[in-house]
Each structure stands twice: as structure tokens, then as C-alpha cells.
Amino acid sequence: MDTSSVGLLLALPVLLQLAAGGGSPRPGALLRGCPAHCQCEPDGRMLLRVDCSDLGLSELPSNLSVFTSYLDLSMNNISQLPPNPLHGLRFLEELRLAGNALTYIPKGAFAGLYSLKVLMLQNNRLRQVPTEALQNLRSLQSLTLNGASQITEFPDLTGTASLESLTLTGAQISSLPQAVCDQLPNLQVLDLSYNLLEDLPSFSVCRKLQKIDLRHNEMCEIRANTFQQLFSLRSLNLAWNKIAVIHPNAFSTLPSLRKLDLSSNRLSSFPVTGLHGLTHLKLTGNHALQSLISSENFPELKVIEMPYAYQCCAFGVCENVYKISNQWNKGDNSSADDLHKKDAGMFQVQDERDLEDFLLDFEEDLKALHSVQCSPSPGPFKLCEYLFGSWLIRIGVWTIAVLALTCNALVTSTVFRAPLYISSVKLLIGLIAVVNMLTGVSSAVLAGVDAFTFGSFAQHGAWWEQGVGCQVVGFLSIFASESSVFLLTLAALERGFSVKCSAKFETKTPFSSLKAIVALCAMLAATIAAVPLLGGSEYSASPLCLPLPFGEPSATGYMVALVLLNSLCFLVMTIAYTKLYCNLEKGDLENIWDCSMVKHIALLLFTNCILYCPVAFLSFSSLLNLTFISPEVIKFILLVIVPLPACLNPLLYILFNPHFKEDLGSLGKQTHFWTRSKHTSLMSINSDDVEKQSCDSTQALVTFTSASRAYDLPSNSGSPPAYPMTESCHLSSVAFVPCL
User: Fold this and answer.
1) What is the per-residue DSSP string for 711-734?
2) Is the pLDDT score of 548 beyond 80?
3) Which residue intervals of the chain bear CATH 1.20.1070.10?
4) Integer Cα distance of 502 and 583 in angstroms
5) Nearest-angstrom CA–CA distance, 510 and 424
6) Distance CA 711, CA 704 (A)
7) Alpha carbon of 150 to those of 73, 122, 171, 195, 441: distances in Å?
8) Kind and range of the H or E run holding 212
9) Are 304 and 293 in contact (CB under 8 A)?
10) Cα(85)–Cα(78) distance, rounded to whole angstroms?
11) CA distance 263 to 278
12) Residue 80 to residue 69: CA distance in whole angstroms
């Protein structure tokens, strides 16, 4: 006797009642077998749906109706099943036992469930799939075993040949049998995600497969025969694996494939053969996949996710799209009257020319509506054609790079012409020129990349953004910027301390201590610049190789921390110089020792502080989510305003500091002296000629800032002087006017 005959016999009393009464059955006729505390309702076929979920049951209810077609026992405390608990439920089609404490299912637990189609056993404590209990479920179509963390082997499902959907996730299965499709010829949905699969058999026998989910496994390769001849396959998910190699013909025989997810793998290349019917493609997270993919291979594509924004340029998503979308959004915000006017005038065409223009505009709107949705989308900082985007920024960067390199090189050569006879303040000026030159190098590299990729930046954007060169440029930029601020702070403190000591005729800080402080500043700047390299990828957030003051919270916090630190340095400089000027009486500034250097440091402080205000404003506005600043202004601040002190600092020294003219004039004399002394090295060191040369050279080196106590000369204790000092060399010619 088949299932339908048994059902008719069991439903005969109800049918007789319907025939005699001529109406619907009494509520008790079907709901008489509803267990206590459970919710029961008819399903429209004279059968009963019973919901006993989340009631704290420790065993199965005993008074279930024979007409039960749906039974939900999930989220209870059932730890074991009796041998034949549900044998009388011949009409049961769906059984849910999820979220219990089942560790074992006996052989006859599902005996008599001839109509069972859906079985859910997820989130239990099963150590193995109840193969013997499933053998007689000839009608079973869906089996769910999510969260089966203690299952290590794929079950034998030979007795469930009608199974159409199998979900076995969160287990410890590392391999699949080669005959998996022989056991399940009708399988349509296979979900084996969150397992430990390292290798896959051929699924070519599973001709009815429509969806395969294999995400979060350990697979490294997809061979050519793995998914061959799956003509019905529509969705394939291989995300979060370790796939580095895919055979060129792995997807060549999948004509129905519409969704393919390969995100978060290790792909460096992607085969496109056989994927012309795709509508959804995910490749995000494959950082080694940096080449562009042609849109001609995907004519039906609607949604695509790529590793880099530049790869979306091939699908028509460029900076021009942002202008169109902004106009489109702006049109959405227009008033109702404007919309009414547009609708009313849509078909009011005055002449053929207006009609032609209207059709062209309508065609463009259709293209915009049906364009591919590609993410991450290119934006103002990730352009398809150019790195800088505008000629104003491009000219500004080139100007800063040229001036910073040439002017700082000139200042460095004049200041460090004789390292043994250099004052403390000149040492700081020279070191500031050196770090400013590093800023010029980073700007020059960015300008070179812009020139090299001019008009086709999308082809090289991912390579440059993720390359070592971008990391080096970002490190140099932050290191040079922070070192310049620290050295300028140290110079301001040194000038205040020097003037104070000169007024009291006290001995200054030893030169070795100043060198130690400079080394400490360099180490601190290097540590700050290395934070993005160690803690994240802020330098690779954009092709500008700078931590952007928006977007990721870590980058925003980093920029705000830098602004606070630099603001503290500028505050210290301002306080030091304000105290210096307040302690001096009127007219004393012109009489203090080396007033030109005091004025020069003050000028540097003023210009650097003014130029740093836009950077601080930009960082705090991003922290407060103020988005009124346009991207072009942000790029201009980051690329032009931030490195601008690197070329202004040496220009101020060259144009307004009298020491530069003295150093530049003595540079030729010094070179001449070293050339002559090299040829006369074998002559007597006590000759009058050598003595005269030594004296002249020393007088040229000792300027307003080079004296012993008030001279700022480095102490060379324990070593003989570089040149013999005789009576013919007079240091008294150095003008020294102490404070009042």
C-alpha cells in the first residue's frame, strides 16, 4: 500500500464528517492532537503545522496528531531520540531538530516518515551523520547539517538518491569521495562551506547541480575537470580559500553560470573563457590580481567587485560617471514643479533638431542606468587617466619638487662646507634643509609617476599603489615633515637659550648634547613614519601614498594624532619666541648676539605655522564628518600646501639671511684652500705660507655665530686643532655686542 492510500484511510473519518455535515470540520477534529504549549494551525490541506520551538523540551511530545505535516522542535534541550519516536507521522514533510543537544541519532529514528522531504539537524553535537537513519528516507529532498563541527568524514548517502539539497557546513571534512555524485544524482544545491576541503573531485556527474557553495575552505587549485559539463550550474561560490591557480578551461563548459564569487583568494590571473553569461562577479580581496580585465568578455555583467578601483575603469566607471551621478542626484532633489515641467515638455519637440538632441540625451541616460555597477568605484583620489587630475596641482608639485631639490642642496652645501667649524644653529638649519630635500624627493617621484602614466593611470594604478615605491614615498614624506617640525622646534629653543646665555656670559650647552637631541628627534620622526607600515596600509590607501584624513578610522586617527603633535610643537615654538621677545627691551633685538638668526628662525616659525593651518583644519573637519571641502581642495592641500615649506624654508634663508652670502662667498675660498693644502701636505707645517692660509681660512669660517663661549664652536677636547693657531690669526675681529 502506497503513501497516498494510507493517507486516504487515515483521513476517512474527517471526510465522512465533511460529507455528513456539509461544512468545515470541527476545530477539534484536526487540532485534537496538538501538544501542550505548542502552536498548531492547519495548512490548508486538512493537515496540521505544529511549532514547538524554544519551549525547553527535553523529549519529543507524545500526543502529536497523525495529520502533522510540519513539525518544528528546534531550540530545545532534546539530547536523544528514542528508536521509533515519529513512526506514525506518515504525512510529515518537514522536520526541524536544529539547536538541540543531539549527539547520536538511532537507526530507526526516522522510520515510517515516508513523506519526509526536509530534515534540519543543524547546530547539534553530532559526531557523525546518521547514515543508517537516513537510508529509508526515499522522499528526502533537503538535508541541513550546519555547525556540525565534530563531523570529520563525508557521509554515505546512497539511500537518499532523491536528495536535491545538501548543506553540511562548519564541519571538519577535508576531502570528498570521488563517487559523491553517484550517490546523489538528483542533487541541485550543495553547500560545503566552512570545512577543511583541500581538494575537489569532479562534479561532472552531478548534471542537475544549480548552486555550489565552497567558501571558507583550504583549496589551492581548481583543475580543468572539476566543474566540467555542469550545464545547469547557475551559482558558484569559492570565496575565502587559498586558490592561486585556476586552469584556463575550468569554467569553459558552464553556459548557465550567472554568479561567480572568487573573493579573498590568492589569484594573480583570472581566466575568462566560458564566462560570457555572468551577471555577478566578485574578485575583491585578490591583491595579487592587479591587471585590468576587459569588459568585452562579460557582455551580460551587471555587478562586479574588483580588488582595485582602477580595474573598474575598463567597465566605464570613471571620474566622468561621478559628474553624471551628481547631476542625476541633483535632479532627484529638484522641486515638484520642475519635475512637472520636465514631464510636460518631454514630448513637446519644436523641430527635428530638438528631437535629435532629446534622443541623444535619452540614450545617454539609458546607458547610465544600465551601466555595470563596479566597486570599489574610481573617485577623485583614484582616477582612471591621471594621478594628479588637474594642471594646477601638477604645476604646483613640479615647482615644489624643483625648488626644494635645488635650493635645499644649495643651502646644505654652504652650511656643511666645513663640518668641524659649524655653529649649533647652522647645524639645525642645515639639517632642516636635508629633510626638506627628502620632501622634494618624494614630490619629484610623484610628479614622475604622473608623467610616466599620463593618460593611462588605470593600467599602472594598482601596481603603483601596492608597490614598494609608494611605501617609500609615504615614509619619506611623513619622516621629512615630522623631522622638519621637530628640528624647527629645537632651533627655536636653541635660539632662546643661546640669547639668554650670551646675555649672562654663561657657557652654552655642549655640542654633543645637541647632536644627541637631534638624533632623538630623527628616531621619533622615523617611528611616527613607520606606524602606517607596521599597523596597516595607510600609505596604500591612495596613489598619493599619504594617509588620507578620511575613510578608514585608523587613518583618520593617525592624521589627527599628527596634527595634535605638530600643534604642540608650534605652541612650544610660539611660547619660546614670545618669551624671548618679551624679555628683551626695546632696541635689544638689534644688539643681541647674531640677531639675523633669531629673526630667521622667527620667520620660519611664522610661515610654517601659517601653512600648517589648512592641514589641521582638514584633519579635524574629517574627524567631525564635515564634508563641505571638495576633493580637489583636499588634493591641493595634501600635494601642494603640505610640502610647500620644503621650498619656502631654503628660499627664506637664501634671500633674507646675510649668513648665506657670507657662506657662499667663503665657499670658494674654502675650496681653494683645501686644493692648495692638498698639494702642500709634504711641506713644513710651520712655514709662514701655511700659517697665513690657516689664519685666513679660520677668519672666513668664524662668523657671528662661531666663537668659543659665545661663538657656538663645537668642543674638540682631546684632539689637536685642525689648523695651528698663531699670533698672526686674530679672533678679536669678530664683532660681539652682548645684551644690556
Assistant:
1) S-PPP-TTS--SS---TT--STTS
2) no
3) 391-659
4) 14
5) 10
6) 7
7) 22, 12, 6, 11, 58
8) strand 211-213
9) no
10) 13
11) 15
12) 22
Note whether 229 and 205 are within 8 A (CB): no
For residue 376, say if its preceding peptide bond is cis, omega within 30 degrees of 0.
yes
What confidence score (pLDDT) does residue 627 get? Answer: 67
Taking CA atoms, 62 is separated from 13, 65, 548, 729, in Å, by: 22, 9, 65, 117
CB of 643 within 8 A of CB of 439?
A: yes
> What is the Cα–Cα distance from 712 to 707, expressed in whole angstroms?
5
Cell 615605491 belongs to residue: 469
Query: SS3 for 304?
Result: strand
One-letter amino acid for residue 368 of the chain? A
Do 100 and 78 contact (CB within 8 A), yes or no? Answer: yes
Conformational region of residue 650, where left means phi above 0, alpha means psi within -120 to 50, and beta covers everything else? alpha
- pTM > 0.90: no
**Helix count and strand count (H, E) for the chain:** 19, 16
Distances (CA, A) of 508 to 699, 713, 717, 720: 22, 10, 15, 22
How far apart are alpha carbons 141 and 186 in whole angstroms? 9
Helix axes 391-415, 645-656, angle to 10 degrees: 50
pLDDT score of 737 more than 90: no
Among candidate residues 63, 48, 45, the one with its CA nearest the CA of residue 94: 48
> How far apart are the C-alpha atoms of 523 and 538, rounded to whole Å?
20
Q: What is the enclosing helix (H) or strand (E) of 673?
A: helix 658-679
By the 8 A CB rule, do 309 and 287 touch?
no
Q: Residue 200 has which C-alpha cell?
A: 575537489
The domain defined by 391-659 folds into Rhopdopsin 7-helix transmembrane proteins (1.20.1070)
pLDDT computed for residue 702 by the predictor: 34
Asked whether the beta carbons of 284 and 261 are under 8 A apart, the reply is no
Q: Is the Cβ–Cβ distance between 260 and 270 less than 8 Å?
A: no
Residues 418, 347: contact at Cβ < 8 Å?
no
Backbone angles phi, psi at 236, to 5 degrees: -135, 120
Q: Which among 320, 296, 313, 639 is positioned nearest to 457, based on CA atoms?
A: 313
Cell of 112: 515510517
Locate CATH 3.80.10.10 in the chain.
Answer: 1-149
Read off the C-alpha cell for 680: 702642500
What digits encode the pLDDT tens for the residues 616-656? 888 777 777 666 778 888 889 889 999 999 999 999 989 88
pLDDT digits (tens, 9 = 90+) for 250-301: 999 999 999 999 999 999 999 999 999 999 999 999 999 998 888 888 999 9
Task: Could you please state the CATH topology (level 3) that the domain comprising 1-149 is classified under.
Answer: 3.80.10
R_g (Cα) of the chain, nearest Å: 41
Measure CA of the first residue to CA of the last residue in the chain; give whole Å.
123
Burial of 135 (0-12, 13-18, 19+ CB in 10 A): middle
Angle CA 332–336–338, to nearest 5 = 80
Q: Which of 288, 264, 378, 286 is nearest to 325 (CA)?
A: 378
Read off the C-alpha cell for 106: 538511532
Angstrom distance (rounded) from CA 484 to CA 492:
12
User: CB atoms < 10 A from the CB of 266, how many?
Assistant: 15
